[in-house]
Amino acid sequence: MEILDGKKISNQIKEEIAAEVAQMKERGEKVPHLAAVIVGNDGASLTYVGSKVRSCERVGFESTMVRLPNTTSEQELLKKIHELNVDPNIDGFIVQLPLPPQIDTQRVLMAVDPDKDVDGFHPMNFGKMALDMSTFIPATPFGILELLDRYQVETQGKHTVVIGRSHIVGRPMSILMGRKSFPGNSTVTLTHSRTKNISQITTQADIIISALGVPGFLKAEMVKDDVVIIDVGITRVPDESRERGYYITGDVDFENVSKKASYITPVPGGVGPMTIAMLLKNTLLARERHRNR
Ligand code: NAP
Fold it and tell me: Which end of the chain has fewer CB atoms surrounding its CB within 10 Å, N or C?
């Protein structure tokens, strides 16, 4: 069994990006600038956005954090998005989800300029991804592809089972694993909460990508020997004995499933750090596109 070490690979990617940024600086060029918009005070969201902004600083990007109160109206947020769309200093930006209930998330994601949509959530970018066109691939699926690529995990002709059909992980992942390239060329089954006899399907899988958010969901008896496991789940489990008051766990019973797996991602330290690295990569791509326009 080999660990797919997202922490190590993400650090390599950040070093590669930092080297490119250093060259941009030497040439006197503008460096990439990422903005992150956060509405409200959700603890997990603030943690995620904080680490995205710190990662920007680490690779030499400029970054801007836009914090808006929980009471922000949809119109006010759309106005802020328009400002970011037209600001020539900003190469890409993200709107951290979830948004408060008074705001229509789809309307907000549609308002982001597709050329600055480094999360890849705009329908135009999602459509391009589905058609194998050059675009911003959502950071978490992009990170999974990169992990499979850097460890040269064979995907061609394999049966990949994706658990979860969210727009940000499961659905794009199912499209990407079925595309005609590497990583890809898999035969994909997309499963969800209405899937019957899910164990029957997972026991036939060569690769399982689990993105449902249910701790310990995938058990050893649900997988076959030599399976490749990508655990996307991140759940905070309350635990008074820890200083932070919780611990982080994935969807997979790591202790037992890892004994049968050929490759497996840990949680934490697997897909999570890759997500941030690929957001930076998308921002670098956005800068290059704007420079070449
Ligand atoms: P989501 O929008 O809540 O979607 C969860 C999906 O799982 C849904 O499609 C749901 O089915 C399915 N599901 C729920 N219970 C199930 C069950 N018992 N059996 C089969 N399918 C079931 O979740 P998400 O945003 O994709 O996130 C999933 C997990 O990944 C969460 O833990 C999240 O924190 C984590 N995540 C991690 C990263 C990272 O960087 N590592 C990034 C994003 C998300 P229905 O469609 O039928 O409801």
Answer: C
Q: What is the pTM of this model?
A: 0.97
Domains recognised in the chain with CATH numbers: 27-113 (3.40.50.10860), 139-272 (3.40.50.720)
Q: CB of 250 within 8 A of CB of 273? A: no
Give residue-wise pLDDT tens across range 171-189: 999 999 999 999 999 999 9
Closest residue by Cα to residue 74 from 45, 43, 110: 110
Which residue CA neighbors atom 34 of ligand 1 most closely?
A: 234
8 A C-beta contact, residue 126 and residue 172: yes
CB 217 within 8 A of CB 252: yes
Average pLDDT over residues 238-247: 94
Instruction: Establish whether residue 90 lines the binding site of ligand 1, counting it when its CB lies within 6 angstroms of any ligand atom.
Output: no
**Residue 71 corresponds to which amino acid?**
T
Query: Is the separation of the CB atoms in 289 and 24 below 8 Å?
Result: no
Q: Is the pLDDT confidence value at 247 over 90?
A: yes
Encode pLDDT of 6-49 as tens digits. Answer: 999 999 999 999 999 999 999 999 999 999 999 999 988 998 89
Identify the residue whose C-alpha is closest to ligand 1 atom 26. 166
Q: Of all atoms in ligand 1, which is nearest to the CA of residue 235? A: 32
Is the alpha carbon torsion for 69, 101, 46, 89 positive or negative?
Answer: negative
Average pLDDT, the chain: 97
Closest atom of ligand 1 to CA, residue 274: 40
246 neighbors 103 (Cβ within 8 angstroms): no
Quick check: bond before 88 cis, omega within 30?
no
Q: How far apart are CA 231 and CA 216, in angstroms?
A: 10
CA of 192 to the centre of ligand 1 (A): 9
The two tokens of residue 58 are 């680490």
